Amino acid sequence: MTAQEHDRVCALVSHLPHVIANVYASLVYEKRSCFSHFAGSSFRDFTRIAGSSPEVWLDIFLTNQTQILSVIDELEEGLRIMKKLIKTENEDGLKAFLIKVKKMKERVDDDDLL
To answer: Rounded to two decimals, what is the model's pTM?
Structure first.
């Protein structure tokens, strides 16, 4: 694996989750911090990494900026697709997407890749 491939993989599986968790936690907490009282364990699990060291992540975000920005672009495209499926009430498309992702997740879990 080249250094660039390594940076890309890290951006996708490590750095992007930190970007998402911080943006999401900010979205919820800036509305009203008490909203988290309505949330279940998935909220706690999803936002847990938003409590990570700002110093460490500042350095990572700036050091791997090119790759992180690239995967953010990909995430934005995926969100646009999901938004369109929901907005147009495309039940078949939405269901197909959810099934596809569920099967990929199961394959990873079955192969014990994580």
So the answer is: 0.85
Which among 79, 63, 71, 75 is positioned nearest to 11, based on CA atoms?
71
* Per-residue pLDDT at 114 exceeds 80: no
Residue 91, classified by CB atoms within 10 Å of its CB into exposed (0-12), middle (13-18) or buried (19+), is exposed
What's the Cα-to-Cα distance from 97 to each of 47, 75, 82, 100, 102, rounded to whole Å? 24, 15, 9, 5, 9
C-alpha to C-alpha distance for 99 and 94, rounded to whole angstroms: 9
Q: How confident is the model at residue 76 (pLDDT cuts 50, 70, 90)?
A: very high
Measure Cα distances from 16 to 33, 54, 70 in Å: 23, 15, 10
Total domain count, the chain: 1
Structural domain span for residue 102: 3-110
The span from the CA of 85 to the CA of 10, in Å, is 29
Q: What is the CATH number of the domain that holds 30?
A: 1.10.3660.10
Q: What is the pLDDT of residue 33?
A: 67
